[in-house]
Amino acid sequence: MKSILSIAVLISSANAFFTQPSAVAPSTAKAGETRRHPTHLNASKNRRKVASRTTWSEARGYGTATSAAAVSESDPSPSAADVVGVGGRKAAPRLIIAGAPASGKGTQCESIKAKYGVVHLSTGDMLRAAVSAGTDVGMRAKEYMDSGRLVPDEVIIGVVKERLNSPDCAESGWLLDGFPRTLEQANALAEAGVSADCFIFLNVPDEILVERVVGRRTDPVTGKIYHMTFSPPDDEEILKRLEQRSDDTEEKVKVRLGQFHANVEAVRGSYTDIAVEVDGTQRPEEVSAMIMKTIDAALT
Ligand code: ADP
């Protein structure tokens, strides 16, 4: 049963560790934790959710720049113990979200974290933190990140496995964002006995992605993401302090997209039994609604 052998994932802050529970879910669940696998999702192809297209600006997912942050602020992250899923299930969800650069993973992760109380593990954020801190991993990753290439598997796999071993991930569950990004990374998770409840693939066409990336800016104070064309801030002060990621240029996003396309099918192929595709061109709120339904179904 492939779902039993499937995935798991992670991201967010920097350190911490945690030993993967065995992929053979129920028998390896930690005390007090109910692990279930979405056997009802096995026919993943039949369950793919592709919403109808909407208008041009909505289709770019820039309905509101602050939607995800607003969710976080008004609905502080519950602990996993407080989260009661559909059918009254309490558990620590194990989720993976995948998608091309600027497909909206970061925005959706904020909403998912707020609703399910999971630990958000973004490998991009983890690596950027490592580069800023000048750690060994950061020094090894920097040149790859600067050029838009993937960091070598042997560098990132160890970081992720270590992070997944941390007590907060065991207790609250996790949301892997940006990992696994290659077949080797997916295999490493499986070999470590890491399995997931759900693999969400955010699908957005390349031409929209390039447009999103080049105009994307982050507020270093609040972490909110804006777009210079689709969702600029109203406040002059915020506008002045916005920062652009050094790899958010047209030249580098083309390299990043090339890497993404070279690997994505192999990664998706590792999770067919728990995979659900979501149309990432919809407004963030609509994408969120589709994702929540998917997760609720997977956790029931
Ligand atoms: P994006 O998904 O928009 O490219 P991320 O913030 O997820 O941005 O990642 C930024 C960079 O970090 C990537 O271009 C790559 O160099 C590196 N990186 C992140 N996750 C991984 C990973 N799983 N494997 C290899 N490199 C990674």
From TrEMBL:
Give start-end of the signal peptide. Answer: 1-16
> Where do transmembrane segments lie in this chain?
none
Mind telling me which InterPro entries this protein's record contains?
Adenyl_kin_sub, Adenylat/UMP-CMP_kin, Adenylat_kinase_CS, P-loop_NTPase
Q: Which GO terms describe its molecular function?
A: kinase activity; nucleotide binding
Keywords recorded for this protein, A-Z = Kinase, Nucleotide-binding, Signal, Transferase
Looking up SUPFAM superfamilies in the UniProt record yields: P-loop containing nucleoside triphosphate hydrolases
- Please name one Pfam family that this protein belongs to: ADK
Which branch of life, at top level?
A: Eukaryota
Positions of region (Disordered): 26-58
Q: Which family does it belong to?
A: Belongs to the adenylate kinase family.
NCBIfam families, alphabetically? adk
Give the HAMAP family listed for this entry: Adenylate_kinase_Adk
Q: What is this protein called?
A: Adenylate kinase
Query: Which organism was this protein described from?
Result: Stephanodiscus triporus
